[in-house]
Write a structure and sequence with these properties.
260 residues; alpha/beta; Rossmann fold; 10-stranded mixed β-sheet; elongated
Length: 260
Amino acid sequence: MRTIVVPVDFSETSLNAVTYAVKMFTGVYGANMILYHVYEKPEHKATAEQSLQKLRKDLFDTGIVKIQLLCEEGHDFAGCLEKCVHKNKPDMVIMGITGKNKAVQTVIGSNTLAMIKKNLCPVLIIPPGAQFVKLKKIALASDFIHAPSPVTVRTIKDMLSSFFASLHIVNVNPDHHVSITEDEQKMKDEIDELFKGFEHEFYFISMYDLQETMNLFAKDNDIDMIITMPKDHSWFDALKGGSNTKKMVYQSTIPVLAVQ
């Protein structure tokens, strides 16, 4: 990883995401973090800049990462963030999430899923209250129909090498019985070749519910992060609504990295 953008609106949601991001990238060579804030009125500029500077100073006690500050005026947070991503070309955007309860929504938290849908770059979703732990095991949810794209493979390899983590490739399909199909075996061989040289394992689970199964798998196998490919399987469709999605995103303590 080289450049990471972390939007900040000074809500508990965004501050938790910032804290997670700093701890995550402390000690990672070449990491450059941009704390990004959007204020609405010109008279808010000085206060916003002072608040960002104070936050950067406070983060020195959390971890050591090169941090830049970016503060600009705007009325459309999602549009401003999109322009920021196009201009700075980050390797990842890290955002918290809210929205389960309208009363506790934040600008950033309620726009996280929208950011994923824009398909601009990988987005790491930090669930409410998630605390950083050293990344040792990363799970990849795969439909075994589409192979990971070159961008996805590059992102995953970067994660594995940066954090010295192992990869656990999971396919959830109710049709799994004794053995996998010939097509699934071909895809397994292709993915196996893509991650040659990296520690990885495959899991074929006969279940119906992807979200619930991934949450259970993460818990049972001490997984520290889940990677999804929203464009390649039904995960993003489910993400737009449904109790299982809410369970994964709002209740899980496992961050989810969406790589389109």
